[in-house]
Specification:
Elements lengths: L5 H22 L5 E9 L10 E6 L5 E6 L5 E7 L2 E8 L6 E8 L5 E3 L3 E3 L18 E3 L4 E4 L11 H5 L5 E3 L5 E3 L5 E5 L10 H5 L7 E7 L13 E7 L6 E11 L2 E12 L2 E25 L3 E27 L2 E28 L3 E30 L6 E23 L7 E25 L2 E24 L4 E4 L5 E19 L3 E16 L9 E14 L3 E12 L3 H4 L10 E3 L8 E13 L4 E13 L2 E13 L2 E13 L1 E16 L3 E16 L6 E17 L3 E10 L2 E3 L2 E3 L2 E12 L4 E8 L5 E9 L3 E10 L2 E10 L11 H4 L7
Parallel strand pairs: 1-7, 1-8, 13-15, 30-34
Antiparallel strand pairs: 1-4, 2-3, 2-5, 5-6, 9-10, 10-14, 11-12, 14-15, 16-17, 16-45, 17-18, 18-19, 18-44, 19-20, 20-21, 21-22, 22-23, 23-24, 24-25, 24-26, 26-27, 27-28, 28-29, 29-31, 31-32, 32-35, 33-34, 35-36, 36-37, 37-38, 38-41, 39-40, 40-43, 41-42, 42-45, 43-44
Length: 822
């Protein structure tokens, strides 16, 4: 293979991609005309989302095409043939507006309409519903948007169930998330950071799918975004009600593995609205059988067999306010409370012996281990935002203040007992409370220079302070009580300050759009750990996106972004977790930030109502790559205690890593009844590290998922989803493969205000077998987990005072429009 010359070939491949892109942008022809505009409320001047925009022939009154407005109120209608047209704009609760004599010339011109202000109607509408299929996946210039509304198999599930279906995103069997194979992902909620993501798996296991409106995946973020996250950004958009009056929804779910409930309530009157939400989640106790067989270079064997009982709980609640003080001034405020908790209870038998070819088995030690690990975090979050718009369209100022305070607590208790002994011979415990404070202050300004050039700039400061206490005790075998161990107990404070500023521009023609940007971030770190200093550093973060639109609904996009991955506190904290004394984990205070460079070349082709296809080539290059490393020690000292024959794992900077791959996403809509969505990824990982054999390591990975839904009569829809992750080689062994599948059905009733759903996951097998190997020069470990994954669930949703929208060119409104002349 070509892996040995991967860096050189990567540079050549990148040059080839750029040359190919320049050729395409230089010689491809353009398509028909385009009509653009924006729809706002006449009184509040706020965007009107989902307004129907219909293009009709001025002479025949026949509908030619149309669209619905985005969340910003903007709309773009492409591929409009030559002719004279009437534009009709209508939305429930507003009077219809029309624009006459809109002309598209031969060869196609770009018509930009003035801002359209809709006036509220004087009558009240009751029990009105617009139904349709919201596009599942939307490809935008800088991100992919996955709309959750019609996701049947995720009903009653959590955010992790939704993320498995999002193009470019991977979720392993333990809930770890990556973008194009890179697990250093920056998570946001409604565009803002949240302290709950200090434990991403717990957070994503606690957010009900019923609370999520959409998920945005930004694999090559621009300068406006924080540089954090070499993998990219995942922004989870929660549902919010913006309709006049009182409206909301309730979801109740129960199952063999998961139970949750969620409530959303919105109240809007004039230019002021309030949104409140609550969700509770519980993952029921599930038992995972586990075994480990380990052999060290000195022929010492360790066999461990037992199980782990895992349970999780989560709660999120909050309230938000939105006030349009004037037509140019808007204030929003949100306050929320989150609670996350998990518990692992373990029981294992242990057998350690030396296998000598001449003397047989010697030094046989048998016993068992009981341990109990617990984690919980209570957090409060607050955000305040001000938006100022100006008379010039697109000119605006945004100021944001957000703050969070978390109180994480971790505990574990361990006992080890010899076989047949009445009392434990060893034990330890730890109680580790702490606080986690983060404050972000940001200001962003957008200035349109002309119709082809927009400038953006902004500044941001981030202050994070973490304080933790580790109270460690060891078991006194005589009294069977835990005695404080001052050699392992400590208090630790960690401070991080980030000062950032950026500038970016958007310019181009009707066919070509270019968005370059440059961000600067200065990072100050301090930690009050003896003999440990974390230096300050500066980061210059360039990015660029080039996009060429062609006729027939297709485009090609080239992007580059530079990213960093600062090690979080959990990776830096030197606390030694000894809940399994043969497999210890700890932090690394000397861990350096990972540096990433991402290049993507993507092509998208739409086929109208039939579907679309997207192909993306990517190259991800990471320096000071952060990866878990396991080292075997015959003896290992922790305070006054000495452990024998133990493996110690932490995260280290292993060297350089290159990921080269291709992704394919395709959707197919057959007669508006059968919808199919397919995603696949194939990639090669090439690592240069002193820890790898011969200094390099090569691995391959493959992933695919398939989702299909079928609309039956009487408001009944069925859906099936399958997800496969291949096994992959890493520096020290092999991670396992996994295959999961879900079938589901949903029935709507009560004028589609209520629905009941059923889901079944891995119904034909109770466990998913996970085989993980670690192979180093000092030992070999073989671990088998039987992960319980089979589940059955039922959910009920009720919507009151809420409109259900349908978006796209197949809207029933477009098929039966009002008289365009009115």
């Amino acid at each position: 293979m070509f892996a040995g010359n991967c860096p050189a070939l990567m540079k050549k491949a990148t040059l080839f991609i750029i040359i190919m892109f320049m050729c395409l942008t230089g010689y491809c022809q353009t398509g028909n005309g385009r009509i653009r505009g924006k729809v706002v409320d006449e009184t509040t001047h706020q965007p009107v989302e989902f307004a129907a925009v219909v293009v009709s022939d001025q002479q025949t009154k026949k509908v030619v095409t149309g669209a619905t407005t985005e969340t910003s109120g903007a709309f773009t209608i492409k591929d409009v043939p030559e002719g004279h047209y009437i534009i009709t704009i209508e939305f429930i609760g507003y009077k219809r507006d029309t624009i006459n004599n809109v002309v598209i010339t031969q060869g196609g011109n770009d018509v930009k309409l003035s801002t359209i202000s809709l006036r509220s109607s004087q009558h009240t509408l009751k029990d009105v519903t617009i139904t349709a299929a919201l596009p599942v996946v939307e490809n935008k210039i800088d991100k992919i948007v996955y709309n959750v509304a019609n996701d049947v198999t995720s009903q009653g599930g959590v955010a992790l169930d939704v993320l498995k279906k999002v193009p470019q995103v991977g979720v392993d069997i333990d809930g770890n998330v990556d973008i194009q194979g890179n697990g250093n992902v920056r998570f946001l909620i409604n565009g803002k950071p949240s302290s709950i993501f200090n434990s991403p798996v717990d957070a994503l296991s606690a957010i009900p799918a019923s609370q999520i409106k959409s998920i945005e995946v930004i694999s090559s973020p621009g300068a406006k975004y924080d540089a954090e996250g070499t993998g990219g950004i995942i922004n989870i958009i929660l549902k919010e009600n913006k309709m006049q009056g009182v409206n909301g929804n309730i979801t109740l779910s129960a199952g063999t593995r998961l139970e949750n409930t969620s409530v959303n309530l919105g109240v809007k009157h004039g230019n002021f609205d309030v949104n409140a939400y609550f969700s509770g989640n519980a993952q029921l106790i599930s038992r995972t059988p586990n075994s480990q067989n380990r052999t060290s270079s000195d022929s010492l064997h360790l066999n461990q067999n037992g199980y782990t009982d895992l349970q999780r709980q989560g709660l999120q609640s909050g309230i938000g306010f939105d006030w349009n003080v004037t037509k140019h001034d808007n204030f929003t405020a949100n306050v929320g409370y989150n609670y996350l908790a998990n518990r692992n209870t373990n029981f294992y038998s242990q057998d350690q012996y030396t296998q000598n070819p001449n003397q047989g088995t010697t030094n046989d030690v048998s016993g068992f281990r009981n341990s109990d690990s617990r984690f919980q975090n209570n957090s409060v979050e607050l955000s305040l935002a001000y938006k100022k718009t100006f008379k010039k369209e697109g000119q605006e100022l945004n100021i944001l203040y957000s703050s969070s305070l978390g109180n994480p607590v971790s505990d574990y208790t361990l006992y080890q007992t010899y076989s047949g002994a009445p009392k434990p011979y060893s034990g330890s415990e730890s109680h580790s409370p702490g606080t986690d404070r983060e404050t972000d202050i940001a200001a962003d300004y957008t200035q349109p220079v002309n119709k082809n050039l927009v400038l953006e700039t902004g500044v941001k400061t981030t202050f994070q302070n973490i304080h933790s206490i580790a109270d460690v005790g060891v078991l006194d075998t005589g009294s069977q009580r835990f005695i404080p161990d001052n050699t392992q107990s400590y208090q630790l404070t960690y401070d991080r300050k980030i000062y950032a500023g950026y500038v970016s521009a958007s310019f181009g023609t009707k066919q070509i759009k270019i968005k370059p940007g440059l961000r600067f971030e200065h990072t100050d770190n301090s930690i009050d750990l003896l003999n440990t200093t974390i230096p300050s550093y500066d980061s210059w973060v360039p990015s660029i996106i080039i996009m060429h639109e062609f006729k027939d609904d297709q485009y090609i996009r080239l992007s580059y972004s530079h990213r960093i991955e600062r090690p979080n506190y959990q990776l830096l904290n030197p606390f030694v977790n000894r809940s399994d004394p043969y497999n210890i984990t700890t932090g690394n205070p000397l861990l350096k930030p990972e540096i990433g460079d991402n290049i993507e070349l993507g092509y998208n082709k739409g086929f109208g109502k039939t579907g679309n296809i997207t192909v993306t080539l990517f190259e991800r290059m990471d320096g000071q790559d952060q990866k878990p490393v396991t080292i075997f020690y015959p003896t290992y000292a922790v305070g006054d205690s000495v452990y024998e024959n133990v493996s110690v794992s932490n995260v280290q900077n292993i060297g350089k890593e290159y990921n080269t791959g291709i992704t394919l996403y395709a959707s197919l809509n057959i007669k508006e009844k059968l919808n199919l969505h397919f995603f696949t990824l194939a990639a090669q990982r090439f690592v240069e590290s002193s820890l790898a054999a011969n200094g390099v390591a090569i691995g391959y990975r493959f992933r695919f998922n398939l989702n299909g839904s079928y609309q039956l009569p009487h408001n009944l829809v069925t859906e099936a989803f399958a997800n496969y992750n291949s096994a992959s080689e890493n520096l020290q062994g092999r991670t396992p493969q996994s295959l999961t599948y879900t079938i589901a059905a949903r029935k709507q009733f009560w004028n589609k205000n209520a629905s009941i759903g059923f889901t079944a996951t891995n119904i034909f097998s109770k466990y998913i077998s996970q085989v993980t190997t670690i192979n180093t020069s000092s030992y070999v470990s073989y671990n088998i987990r039987e992960l319980p994954y089979r589940s059955v669930g039922i959910s009920f949703t009720y919507k009151f005072g809420k409109l259900e929208f349908k978006k796209g060119k197949d809207d029933s409104y477009l098929n039966n429009p009002p008289d365009a002349g009115n």
